[in-house]
Amino acid sequence: MLSFDAPKFNFNLPWFLFDIVNAQLITTPLIPGDITDSKDIILTETPIPGLNYSPIQYTGGGNRKISFTLPLIKRNNTIGNVLLLKQFDQLRNQSAGLADVFSGQFTPNPKVLYYWGVGSVPLVYYVSKCNMTHKAGWTNQVGQPQYTDLEIELILDESHPLYKAEELFRKVSAFSGFISNNFNTIKTKRGERSV
Length: 195
Description:
By secondary structure, the chain is of the alpha+beta class. It contains 2 helices and 7 strands, in the order ββββαβββα. It has helices at residues 82-89, 162-189, and strands at residues 16-19, 24-27, 36-45, 56-73, 111-114, 123-134, 147-156.
């Protein structure tokens, strides 16, 4: 008999972003709240005189966008959460890697590798938003922030070679989902416990 039970692990991978340009792993003990995963489907309705409906044409797809808010809390009495903030600060400024201290004109912002919590293989994203809200009352004795809500928005780079792996993963997973979901539906109809 087929079994689609998920294996049980005694560990959890931590939440992380990998800053590709600066070769830095950014990880935090806290995880994002709800993660929004959006992609526009662009359709055009074409009105035709005398016709009782407007034919619809597919004109393209929008970019996949991932967005979330991440709490950054570090109750340190000297530097607060500044060291973590500066890792994120590099994502919203021009960067040329850690070897180059100062970036020049037309140096692009870093891209990141991300996959946590969105059901995809690791993919490369542009950072389109990295806003910080420093919480009132969470400042230490020397004036450094200790609690910051970080708003992140990432836009998928579909031209990157890793995206081909995502397309393959999508097809294989969709077919596996078709089999698994039908199997679970049949089990439920028979009164058996479904996973």
